[in-house]
Amino acid sequence: GNPHRLLTTMRPDDNWEAEQSKLDAAFQSQFLSKVTPEEKEQWITKSKALHEQQLKTEDISCLPCLQLYDIPMECRREPFTMTEG
Predict the structure, then answer these.
(1) Which run of H or of E encompasses 53?
(2) Which of 7, 67, 70, 71 suits 20 as a labelling partner, its CA being 20 to 30 A distant?
């Protein structure tokens, strides 16, 4: 078997959402100060269309499905060349 292991520990950042909201607000105010009212209206229309598209349920029947037994237990060895850079 493969003796190599990797342990990753992730911890949530309690301030992330507040910081992200501040960054988003700053970006929006800076961006909106540079666009014309017509461009702003186009962005609003496109944003609404994108939001509606994202809310739709996607047809996942076209995606390939793998079962655990579809994946070989042994890794396929690939040739490689060592180089110094």
Answers:
(1) helix 37-55
(2) 7
Residue 53 lies inside a defined structural domain of this protein:
yes
Q: Are the CB atoms for 40 and 32 separated by under 8 Å?
A: yes
CA distances from 36 to 31, 32, 82 (A): 10, 8, 56
For the stretch 32-82, pLDDT in tens is 889 999 999 999 999 999 999 999 999 999 999 999 999 888 888 888 888
Parent domain of 50 = 42-73
The model carries a pTM of 0.44
Residue 40 phi/psi, 5-degree rounding, is -60, -45
Query: What are the residues whose beta carbons fall under 8 Å from the beta carbon of 2, sequence distance 6 or more?
Result: 75
**Domain contains 61:** yes
Query: Is residue 47 in a domain?
Result: yes
Residues in the chain: 85
Q: Specify whether the CB–CB gap between 14 and 22 falls below 8 A.
A: no
